[in-house]
Structures are given as structure tokens and as C-alpha cells.
Amino acid sequence: MDIVKIVDNIFYFYFLLIILRIFLTWIPSIDWHQQPIKSIREVTDMYLNVFRRFIPPVGGLDFSPIIAIIVLQIIQVVVTNLVASIVG
């Protein structure tokens, strides 16, 4: 498999984890300390918390994941293009 495709798939997988994390917050009875929910929370929150420091919730809604996804996609394009230019 092409290294560029592998890097692109890693970013896509992380994007899907963030989307899953967002949907899980809509389930009020979810136990955030049970596996695999705990692992999803831990892996995604380390990235999302960067944006939560700068983007406070508005009316009880957390808009930081939207900005985090946009930034992630920008980073994905930059990194995959960089890897593609290095690999040739």
C-alpha cells in the first residue's frame, strides 16, 4: 500500500473517532468509564481539549469539535501533500 494512502487513512480514522465522540455525547446514559468508550474519549479529548481552551461553550453547546475537525482536515492535506512530495 502506498505510504500517502496510509497517512491519509490514519487522518480519516481519527476524523471518524471525533465524529463518533460527538455522537456519543448525545447519549445521556452513557458510561464514559467503560471500554471502548473510555479509550475513544481519551484519544479524542487530548486533541479536542486544545480547542476547548480557546472556544468556550455557547449556550451549553460545544463548538470546538467543528473547528478541530476543520483544522484536522487542513493538517491532513498539508501532511499528505508533504509526504507525497517526499516519496515522489
Largest sheet: none
Q: How much helicity do the residues have? A: over 70%
Count of discrete domains: 1
Q: From the alpha-carbon coordinates, what is the Rg to the nearest angstrom? A: 15 Å
Spans of at least 5 consecutive residues with low confidence? none
Distance between the termini: 15 Å
- Per DSSP, the total helix count is 3
N-to-C order of helices and strands: HHH
Describe the structure.
It contains three helices and no strands. It has helices at 3-24, 37-52, 64-87. It has one domain (3-83). With 88 residues, the chain is mainly α. The two termini are 15 Å apart.
What structural keywords apply?
single chain; 88 residues; mainly alpha; 0% strand; globular
Topology:
Blueprint: H1 3-24, H2 37-52, H3 64-87
Helix pairs in contact: 1-2, 1-3, 2-3
Question: TL;DR?
Answer:
Helices cover 70% and strands 0% of the residues.
